[in-house]
Amino acid sequence: MRFPHTHRLAAFGIAAVAALATVVIGSPAAAAGTGQILRTANAIPGSYIVVLKDKAVGTTALGSVAATASTLAGRYGATVRHTYGDALNGFSAQLTEKAAKRLAADPAVAYVEEDGVFTLQTTQTNPPWGLDRIDQHPLPLNAAYTYVSTGTGVTAYIIDTGIRITHNEFGGRASYGFDAVDGSLPADDCNGHGTHVSGTTGGRTYGVAKNVRLVAVRVLDCNGSGSFSGVIAGINWVTSNHQAGQPAVANMSLGGGFSSAVNNAVTNSIADGVTYAVAAGNSNANACNFSPASTPNAITVGATASNDARASFSNFGSCVDIWAPGVGILSSYNTSNTATATLSGTSMASPHVAGAAARVLQNNPAWTPLQVRNFLVSTATPVAVGPLLFVSPTS
């Protein structure tokens, strides 16, 4: 679901086939029954996410998952769209609902979930103050952003609409990584949202971490919309390409209805060592009802205005870990190499935290995502709405 300008959250272990193939290939009769399909808001008709049983993520070659997906697709008349193998043990496919229910009863399948729609978290307004706010505890603002660390040596994966990597804000630090929308690089930004988010994460003027490496992971189209299955493909790519021991953060300024598959993919990517900052959403509702905002180990970010109050659109509740500036945020835009735009939304709050996490990881590269989250929450400025992001000007 998309957060319209109010922009709303856009309506957005691998099977060891030796053992699994015995179950899958050897028992067509077992497929005669029907199982339950996990439902989601804003479902995409005829599109499903299939999660396989038994093996832990990352323990089986991707080829084995692909082979299992192919076997199951042939059995149930499905067309495989994405094959996962790092963040989620499964695949996405197109098939009829009747066939999906039969597939859900297959002994090789843990569950089948409806695919859904993700979108952005943005609204349009006026100028920048977010950086000024996060390097000081009390108001009023002091018209300065003071910092020492810059995110050097840290990679920030921007899971969004792509990035205009030639923008002057990025100074050659941005690159294309993956494109789930068109299936091939470049993961260019034809919307603007991803470039704006990247600027807040790591732009030289507008960014929290001014020397972080930015990688475009495009999962939303030119309208700012994408499928759950495509977003999982992006998370899977991040997990697969993240090198063990390499400090990394990921920003997801997007969201949709609750999805177990999306949350599981984010959880598994976090277990691989990537710190995730995710937007709480712009529905003025409980963030626990949305994904990826409800992912337990991610850093879920709500949006505040310049008076430290909750932004009127921001989701809230126990799933929100921290708050950050999200109203009237100026950053880079996609229309030229010098373009800027002022946007509002939890989409704009989340990259403040992603950039802060990158700064923390520069100084503490061996920290786990949980350590990063706990540090940011414990050092935050206490305000009425909850802990407000604070990044020390001396560290």
Structure description:
- It comes from Rhizocola hellebori.
- The active site is at residues 160, 193, 347.
- InterPro entries: PCSK9_ProteinaseK-like, Peptidase_S8/S53_dom, Peptidase_S8/S53_dom_sf, Peptidase_S8_Asp-AS, Peptidase_S8_Ser-AS, Peptidase_S8_subtilisin-like, Peptidase_S8_subtilisin-rel, S8pro/Inhibitor_I9.
- Residues 1-31 form the signal peptide.
- Residues 47-120 form the Inhibitor I9 domain.
- The chain is an alpha/beta fold.
- The protein folds into 2 domains: 17-116, Peptidase S8 propeptide/proteinase inhibitor I9 (Alpha-Beta Plaits), CATH 3.30.70.80; 120-388, Rossmann fold.
- Helices cover 26% and strands 25% of the residues.
- It is built from 9 helices and 20 strands.
- It has helices at 17-26, 62-76, 97-104, 130-134, 193-202, 228-241, 260-271, 346-363, 369-378; strands at residues 37-38, 43-52, 79-83, 90-94, 109-120, 123-124, 155-160, 174-179, 213-218, 225-227, 248-252, 254-257, 274-279, 290-291, 299-304, 322-325, 329-332, 340-344, 381-383, 386-388.
- Strands 1, 2, 3, 4, 5, 10, 12 and 14 form an 8-stranded mixed sheet that branches.
- β17 (329-332) and β18 (340-344) form a beta hairpin.
- α1 (17-26) runs parallel beside α2 (62-76) and α6 (228-241) runs parallel beside α7 (260-271).
- The protein is globular.
